[in-house]
Every structure is written in C-alpha cells, then in structure tokens.
Specification:
By secondary structure, the protein is α/β, with parallel strands linked by helices. The chain is 34% helix and 25% strand. A 9-stranded mixed β-sheet has the order 14-13-12-11-7-10-9-8-15, with helices on one face. Helix 1 (15-22) links the parallel strand 1 (4-9) and strand 2 (28-34). Helix 4 (80-89) packs parallel to helix 5. The relative contact order is 0.15.
Length: 344
Amino acid sequence: MEKRKVVFAGCGGITRAWMTAVQNFADVEVVGLCDLSASSIDAFRERWKVDPVSAGDNLERVIRESGADTVFDCTVPSAHPSVTKASLAAGCDVLGEKPMAPSLEEALEMVAAARAAGRTYAVIQNRRYLPGIRRFRQAIGETSIGPLTTLDVDFYIGAHFGGFRSEMDHVLLLDMAIHTFDQARFLSGADAEYVYASDWNPAGSWYRHGANAVAFFEMSGGVRCTYRGSWCAEGHNTSWEGQWRATGTTGTLLWDGGSGLTGEHDAGGEELIHDFAAVDVPPEVPLDYTGHAGVIRDFLDSLHTGRTPMTDCTDNVKSVAMVLAAVESAETGKRVKVWKETRT
C-alpha cells in the first residue's frame, strides 16, 4: 500500500491522539512538522522519535520541501480555514480537527476550496467511530421502538482545560457541541432545519462565556432533538459521548454513551399506563479502530480507494451549521433557520 506523506500542522497536545493511532499505520510517513512554536516542534520530535524532512513555522514551505501529499491539521480552531485552504492549494488532502471554522462563510469556503482542488478534506468527528454509538444507531433503526420521533441528550462535564477555551465566546456550543450535534445527525439520519437555543455562564464557571447551553432542534422528517449541556458541572458527570434517550412511536431506548443500552416497548394492556416489555437490543458492534484512530483510518482508506470518507467536509458542514445557528439563536433569542445546501 502506498504511503501517504504527512505534514502535521500544529504540534501541540491534541497530536497525542493522532500519533497514538498513526504510529501503528504502515501507510503513513510523517515528513513535515509545522508550528509557530519551535519548542512544540522539538517536543513532538522527541516524544514520537520523528525525523521530518522539513520543519518550521511556514506551512507552504514545509509542504514544498517535504514533498507531502497530506496534511493533518491540529491547529487551534481559528487557524483551521487558513491552514486547510493553504494545504489544499498546495495539492494536499487534508484531515483536520473539529470544528471546521468559526463561521459558516469560512466553512463553505473550505468546502469550495476542496472541490476546486479536487482533493479530500475531512474532519475529526471521532464519536462516530465508537462501538456504543454504532450499536445505538443500529438499535434505533432495527428494534421494536418504531420510527424515531425524538432524541434527547444530556452532556454534563466539569472540564478544567485552561488555555484558549477559557477565553472563548460560546465555549460549549462552539468548541464541544459540534460532537453532540453531529451524533444527533448520525443517529437520526436527519438534518437540522430550525433551532432555538440559549447559553449562559453560571456562577462558579471557570470559563469566560457560555459554559452552559440548551438547544431545541427541528429536524427533517419530523424528528425533534433536545440538548442540555454544561462544561462546568461538578459531580455526576455524563460520559463525553452524552446520555441519550431515543423515543419512537412504540418504545424508548436509553444509551449512557458507553456500553449501557436498554429499551422498552409497548406491550399493550387496558390500564392508563400500558405494560412494557424489554427491547431485544443488538450486541455491541466490533470495530477494528475507534475514536481518532477510526477517523484517520477511514480517511486514509478513502484516499487509497477513491471513495468519500464518512466525515467529509461536505457532510460535516451540516453539523457546523447546527452549531452556528444555535449560537445565532442564543445571541438573538430567536428561532433560527439552519443552513441547508441548495446546489443544483
């Protein structure tokens, strides 16, 4: 299998999740490192025993000197548009950290740049590559709860990151909710059409702005999705994947974000509240690679075969649109229409 020659754009802490996977893939050769901090480049070299062809703070030069054909974008969110467009213009395929961009306009420019270059640009949405969510999705589609009507999710984590997140506006919606909103699309097979959202910074928050949020999405096909979240909730935290309830016309499934999946369906009866019977949920779906490794492996395989990766930018922009519409709703206090592509 032909090796992909990779430049890491950004050499900070998030690259640990990437390199933990990449070091096990025989079809990846790290040929370049790019970061504004020379010490971050040096730390990456030392930790992963990498000897790149080129390294420095100028991405175009590193790509050119290294002969790279692929860029892994591990920069901060505000840099994603410029890094992605520069990499595509240099002839590279790109896999980048979420979120795509701080604005829908920039995200759409990135999609257009990938199309114009004839290159693949995909995004890390690692929740799609977990056995639990695959099992939950299968159960929604195949069990006795009937057609899906409603998804409800809670996300409560007390995350003491520090760094750039501490100063972000709408920190929960912009930096984290993309995962949960993308999960909602993946689980329901529906896209968001309208949203009403509110976010706020509660007493005791160690973030500057928007550590808590709620959102109500009207999805295609009549599905509704509610979201409640906090990034400064101390105690009784949910999993990072959230705690979910899927309601169908004849039953309900509960997923704890991990291996816990249960369900009940209507078993009939004459009382005010009917009898319920346990749903026969499917077994856990085995995956060769999970999380970041699953996304990276799928991306690499797509480049080898010519197929579209699951988290391609043309799909992921729909999840980005959910986030940005929720932010607009939180700022205006109004129900907001979620962007939808109208290409002909």
